[in-house]
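Appendix B, record 7
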Amino acid sequence: MSIEDFDPIRIRKDFPALDQTIHGKPLAYLDNAATSQKPRAVLDVLSEYYERDNANVHRGIHELSRRATVAFEAAREKVASWINAPSAAECIWTRGTTEAINLVATAWGLDHVGEGDEILISVMEHHSNIVPWQLLAARTGATLKYIEIDDEGRLVLDGLESLITERTKIVSISDVSNSLGTINPVKTIVDASRAVGAIVMVDGAQGVVHTKVDVQDLGCDFYAFGGHKMCGPTGVGVLWGRLELLEAMAPFQGGGEMIQIVERDQSSWAAVPHKFEAGTPNIAGAIGMGAAVDYLSNIGIEAIAIHESEIMAYAMAQLSLVPGLRMFGPSSLDDRSAVISFTMGDAHPHDISTILDTEGVAIRAGHHCAQLVMKHFGVSATARASFYLYSTQEDVDRLVEGLDQVAAIFG
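Structure tokens (predicted):
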């Protein structure tokens, strides 16, 4: 779909949840960085699987199992194409981005990181890309280091060569910040890591949602993302990894599906990706995520990105006129994605969100699983409005009108 044909009003009709009132007001859903709404095309696929094809995958010979397996593996092919993975076999189904990062930190990290080694992440990371590395450092005696951020929430890359050294084993970085919307220069970090032989993990939870991702072009070693922020179901995600790394890694969990042969004293493992998919997977979730890729592909990620940029320009302009409102993150639209975090005078973000909810406007309030970011800016929490393909200028206007109510209450 070209940007000329892109119509968020028509797109909204594909999303049943958006057609409702909250406290007597039409819903303006601006919490997309937490989770997106689901189009009818995804909901129908989920319903069809449970109503018609409900069976376990791979291990059944009967027709229902065959249909479920075909749909399950077709979805793997779709997500592989979505990120331009060299092979669908490199795409592992997980419960989401969090599990994918933990998988790498455990299955790769415990065998490759030791005492005296270094792990590099950044201050802007989501807790899902901090805590697993803290655990790995504690277990191995490695040192955890951080890339700092500046006053606009950009990574401070001056002196990167002193952070990425020959002791660095892995660098794990988000391509887009969930709390600030900052778009990070991942390729620059990959190049610096390559120079010392370190591998790179990318937290893509907010990346694949808004821009075209090409893991081969990025040059990273692992890329993780979830389904629920890109119009898919919750509880499903993907870890992409270089095949040679995945093949050399130990399993993350043991159980059914991930084995080849089980003996009394030892077992051998199934080939990648099944080596990392122990037990019954989220079959419906994977199929639903494949349907979400189909839906977004039909619209076009380029058209979505242009629309979001226009909405962001309008939103930042309108919010800049609100007295007492402070926005966090890069001032340039070229450096940020569809997220605006803000505070407003003496009103606590939870109070802002509560008042907006009475106006039918849904935003997020809190530390956004990014407490290091909050500490950097000297706040305990922010309010966060986040936009997606179905967001409109009217949603922004409703947000601003709601903030007028906040001002009326708090002065």
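Remarks on this record: Residues 162 and 213 are 28 Å apart (CA to CA). The longest strand covers residues 168-174.
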